[in-house]
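Lecture notes, unit on protein representations.

Consider one protein chain, 141 amino acids long.
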Amino acid sequence: MAKFEEAKAFLNQVYKAKQVCLRCNADLEELRSTSSLLVPAYGEHTGDGSLKHDTSDFICKLQKQEDELERLKLEWLNKRIEVKTFLNQIAMNENVKNVLILRYVSLRKWEEIACAINCSFRWVHTLHSQGLSIVAKKLLH
């Protein structure tokens, strides 16, 4: 069973990369929505006519967050390519391969996979177990 867990961990890299990317995107959206509230406050003048705060620091941090999001998107894409290429290079039944690609690359739900390959929910899980076994063996070599 430990071998199955190793196979799942390898295949789940795409999902994890997507989740990190989505969290970063949520943070960035929060910063953008908050910036409309903060930037006018930064521009307030003091009694002698000078600005209370400089917005360039905030803008720089926002740009760094945007750059980080772009890096994470690229990492997510690279993980998708890596896992899909790995699966496509393994000799296995096409239905097994389709289940693994739909689940771990396309991140589809079990019900969607069953509909896509036109088989029962239970059979999808059987194919999935077969696929994990094959991936686990391949990872050992």
